[in-house]
Design goal:
The chain has 288 residues and is an alpha/beta fold. Helices cover 27% and strands 29% of the residues. The N and C termini lie far apart (39 Å).
Length: 288
Amino acid sequence: MLAASELILNPTGSIYHLNLLPDQIADTIFFVGDPDRVAKVSKHFDKMEHQVQKREFITHTGELGGRRLTVISTGIGPDNIDIVMNELDALVNIDLKTRTVKENLTSLNIVRIGTSGSLAADIPVDSFVVSAFGLGLDNLLHYYDYPASPREEMLRQAFTSFAAGIGTNLDPIAAEADHGLIKRFGKNMRRGITLTCPGFYGPQGRRLRLGSTISSSFFEKIGDFSFEGHRVTNFEMETSAILGLARMLGHHATACNGIIANRITGEFSKNPKQTEERLIAEVLSLVL
């Protein structure tokens, strides 16, 4: 039995941060960082069942073409992903009344619908990328006993050696996306490796009034790295945490990102909201 200090519930019996009950989520869940993006997804639903909000976590569950779906805002960063992934798993795999893990476990399908910065000159703004792998430059997965597969460990070692060779000290954890979800939702997108950072400025090599330990040569040389035909395609702040936690918990996950900045050419989308809307429409068109 899980202690009250470990599995924290609200007085209503709902899970602590998300404020959700088990029957308020579907088995296919879309993650969006921006709380305002939830309604941009759910406006396409044919029917709305639940609308719940607590803090930055907004959840809409409804139906599209007879398929039950959930969209939830995670907020920004891998720390929020830690909360969302663990609490969603608790909703389907822990009996909240008895505080015990269920004998028969449920696997969720989780797809991030996000925005990102390109790390390749030939991946232009307003295009779409699907993550085959996430490389976590944050520390979240270091707090778990992550069971890296041989391919993930090979990717980690290859990237660590490459980064050291260009003067950047990075030792990420690699997490692989679900092949079925990549094939389904990313069939019209570029596939690649997504770097997940714990911040937007210094951790992604941006320099305003402060410097960054991400060297300028990183952006000059990153295009030379590849693993099993996959290039490093984009920078963002959630994907590796989603993929890693999903795999440990027995769920399926990938990330679809609209490119709104190109860090190599210095460009930024002239209409990022339109790119966001196009990405949402593309992903939802592949649900059924």
